[in-house]
Amino acid sequence: MNLVERQLRQLCLRGVARFRICVSEASFATVSRFRNDLFRLYSFEHEFVFAVGTAAAAVADQGSGPHLLVLQGAAVYDDRVFDRLLRGDDSVAVYGVDGAVAARVRPDRLAALVAGDHLRVELDHLQQIGVTCVPASTLDPYIPALRLRLPAVMARVPATGSLTELEHLMYRRTFKGVIDAVALYGYYRPVRWLTRRLSETALPPNLFTVFSILGIWAAVPLFAAGHSGLAVAAAWLGVILDSVDGKLARLRLHLSSTVGALEHLAAMPGLALWYLAIGYRLTGGHLASGGLWCWVTWTLLGAFLVDRVVTGAFKAACGRELFDYAPVDAAFHLVAARRNISLVLLSVGAAIGRMGAALLAVALWTGVTLAFHALRAACVAWRRCTAGAR
Fold it and tell me: Is the N-terminal amide bond of 144 cis, ω within 30° of 0?
């Protein structure tokens, strides 16, 4: 999608439904080239304006109506920039370090932004007409929906820095939560390449969500039947597509909280069922026999579930994920016993024909992960209680 279309999509998701797009004769052909799915996904009114001064005067004649958002077309804006502009009734502007600016102004101030046939959406001019200007760096760096901390992004295109760096930053923002070493150093670039190619097609992200769930669940009977190589292949396919579908949806702004919730509920039991299926195979189908692999399997499942309870309770109490609460938590999450790290251990076991040793290694590392999370949760709770008592 082009930059103007991206802005339209971001604002449509926030309830904005009317747009005037100021263009020149030279830019019209490029700016008006919207993707076919734009009008299928969003309902809005729009018009292209060539005589900017005339259009501004017409808007100003409306008097003290609703505030207007005034944006630079060749710029990338963080969602938090729009959230800040749409909050409250005051005239305000948010600006970045390279001259990117977005403003919310009253209609009667719009004429003051017109110079000839151009809109002067510039920081110094907005300050001169009395618009409150705040730097993007002051916006909250924590993104609850993604469960991570990232400074708000505002950048003009062509950017003053590297476009490759800007693309990397935008792609990094499609990752949900603090990522582990496997995602960061393993499939980060392949998934980025695949997502870029798929973003140019009309294939819906939900298609890859379905394939992801199928891959994750197909691994369960394969592990139980002893087809460990096929099982880890299906599991990795599901994991990678699970990464692709969310990033593709965020890049295209094809966001669906319902589909996201369904995917989470469908994929969440997958890892525990992998453990159970491997234990079933190792015990010959007798998970209540009381033998070594029986104890390893149930101990692993217990540690896995308790760890989920600890991290879930921490989030409920603190409003933040434990995985990125502090730098030490984010650092440990690189190697914590979550799905990707456990799948690496299981893949090694499948490769050397030692699934029992792999399951034992996963159990031990899950126990270490649980101990670390429990200790960190207790330390944070103690500090909060101590601070509250002062």
Answer: no
> What's the CA dihedral at 386, 336, 315, 371 to 10 degrees?
-50
In the DSSP assignment, the letter for residue 325 is S
Residue corresponding to tokens 């994929």: 267
Tell me which H or E stretch contains 334. none
pLDDT at 260: 63
For the stretch 114-145, what's the b/e string if a residue is b when 16 or more beta carbons lie within 10 angstroms of its beta carbon?
Answer: beeeebbbbbebbeeeebeeeebeebeeebee
Q: Kindly state the percentage of the chain with pLDDT values over 70.
A: 85
Confidence of residue 130 (pLDDT cuts 50, 70, 90): confident
Listing DSSP states for 171-210 in one string gives HHTTS-S---HHIIIIIHHHHHHHHHHHHTS---HHHHHH
Q: What average pLDDT is seen over the chain?
A: 84
Confirm whether 223 is domain-assigned.
Answer: yes
Q: Scan for tokens 């990752």, then name that residue.
A: 175
Question: With a threshold of 0.85, does the pTM exceed it?
Answer: no
Q: Report which of 322, 313, 323 is spatially closest to residue 179, judged by C-alpha positions.
A: 323
Q: Look up residue 311 and give its two tokens.
A: 């991290």
Contact 45, 17 (CB under 8 A): yes
- At 94-121, the pLDDT tens digits run 998 878 899 998 877 777 777 766 777 8
Nearest to 344 by CA among 187, 146, 130: 187
Closest among 153, 143, 142 to 96, alpha carbons compared: 153
What is the DSSP-derived secondary structure letter of residue 255? -
- Any domain includes 169: no
Domain that holds residue 320: 182-389
Verify that 236 and 359 share a domain, yes or no: yes
Cα–Cα–Cα angle for 368, 374, 376, nearest 5°? Answer: 100
Answer yes or no: are the C-beta atoms of 120 and 109 closer than 8 Å.
no
Q: Which one is predicted more confidently, 30 or 163?
A: 30
Number of domains in the chain: 2
Which tens digits make up the pLDDT trace of 295-333?
Answer: 999 999 999 999 999 999 998 888 888 888 888 998 999
